[in-house]
Write a structure and sequence with these properties.
With 112 residues, the protein is an all-beta fold. The protein has one domain. The chain has no helices and six strands. Strands 1-2-3-4-5-6 form a six-stranded antiparallel sheet, with no helix packed on it. A hairpin with a 6-residue loop joins β2 and β3 (32-49). The chain starts with a strand and ends with a strand. GO terms for molecular function: siderophore uptake transmembrane transporter activity.
Length: 112
């Protein structure tokens, strides 16, 4: 969803709902392993149009990335989860034929 708060400021919010399920039996008739995880991954961003060519922005997003690996005991590894923050400036030139951006970001992840 995109909201124009006050020209030239815009707010973007959204998210993704993910469900990850797996059920397996190890090679050679090992024990059955099942894993089921649901997650809502939010997103929010603010955009500020500096002028016709430049836009400054900040954003936040959650991280949910299921893994398809098992540990040495045959148990599924937990999904990667975390948060990501970004800030930057985007530019558009030559009637949209050239785009450039510069940004900084921080990513915090669990279950690496």
């Amino acid at each position: 969803l995109r909201f124009s708060l006050a020209d030239p400021l815009k707010l973007i919010v959204g998210g993704r709902y993910s469900t990850w399920k797996t059920d397996s039996v190890g090679f050679g008739g090992g024990s059955r392993q099942a894993f089921d995880k649901d997650a809502f991954v939010p997103y929010a961003g603010l955009l500020y149009d500096i002028n016709e060519n430049y836009t400054a922005y900040v954003s936040y997003t959650g991280i949910f990335n299921p893994q398809s690996y098992q540990d040495r005991n045959g148990s599924w590894l937990d999904p990667l989860e975390g948060k990501a923050y970004e800030a930057g400036v985007k530019g558009e030139f030559l009637d949209g034929r050239l785009n450039a951006s510069a940004s900084v970001f921080q990513v915090n992840q669990d279950n690496l």
